[in-house]
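Database export, one record per block. Field names are fixed; values are copied verbatim from the stored entry.
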Amino acid sequence: MLGEEPLASEVAGEDFPGPDVQTPEQALEFAHAPGMTIYHAVGSAAMGPNDDDVVAPDLRVRGVEGLRVADISVLPRQVSGNTAAPAMAVGWLAADVIRSTS
């Protein structure tokens, strides 16, 4: 739709995926090739109550003495919006937890 007026004359060019990607199959192939997403990654150190969750609810890394994680990597699922508010919420949780154990 951006290739048609009234917007076409306002668009300098397409960065991603580029003009060579025209079909749904090509779009899917492009999405798989670089492994990119528009989302900020979450969950690489997912927090949860189970022993096999990387981070405990008090943000301590299980199996590592004296280490806590206080960023969005502790979120067990991708959020549907911007990650700024969840990141702040994790920070507030961390501050409360650390204050209460100090």
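Remark 1: The chain is about 25% helix and 0% strand.
Remark 2: The helical segments are 24-32, 84-101.
End of record.
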